[in-house]
Every structure is written in structure tokens, then in C-alpha cells.
Design brief:
The structure is a single chain. The chain is mostly loops. The chain is 0% helix and 6% strand. It has a domain at 19-49. It has no helices and 2 strands. A hairpin with an 8-residue loop joins strand 1 (25-26) and strand 2 (35-36). It starts with 24 loop residues before the first strand and ends in a 28-residue tail after the last strand. The mean pLDDT is 76. The structure holds zinc ion. Residues 27, 29, 32, 34, 44-45, 47-48 line the site of zinc ion.
């Protein structure tokens, strides 16, 4: 019954390449020399990313 042993297939290399920008990029902010990761698609580094976190708790502030 040795013929009935299930054999896994060995994974031969990656089926697809990870998305990456070819060259290293710098932060879009002037005077910032932070190099962005090839896998980071954003323009700015984490320090300069114009992120706005919505207010999740507390009173809802009425907009003007
Ligand atoms: Zn920056």
C-alpha cells in the first residue's frame, strides 16, 4: 500500500512577484530625506503623511 501515500508538491519559486516600485523613492516633503520603502506606495514618509484620523469617540463636533 505504499503507492497510496499522498505527496505534496514542492513549491517551486513564487507564482507572482510582489508589487514594488523599481527605484527607491524619497519623501515628497521638501528637506525630508526619508527613503520610502519600495513597497510603500505613498508619497510621504510616515512623519509627513497627511493623514487625518476621524474622531471616533466623544462628542460629534458640528461642522460650520
Ligand atoms: Zn517625510
Amino acid at each position: 500500500m505504499a503507492e497510496n501515500v499522498l505527496k505534496g508538491k514542492r513549491i517551486m519559486g513564487a507564482s507572482r512577484a510582489p508589487k514594488a516600485v523599481n527605484e527607491a523613492r524619497a519623501c515628497a516633503k521638501n528637506d525630508c530625506e526619508t527613503t520610502l520603502s519600495r513597497y510603500n506606495k505613498r508619497e510621504y514618509c510616515y512623519a509627513h503623511a497627511p493623514t487625518k484620523f476621524p474622531r471616533l469617540r466623544g462628542r460629534i463636533v458640528a461642522e460650520n
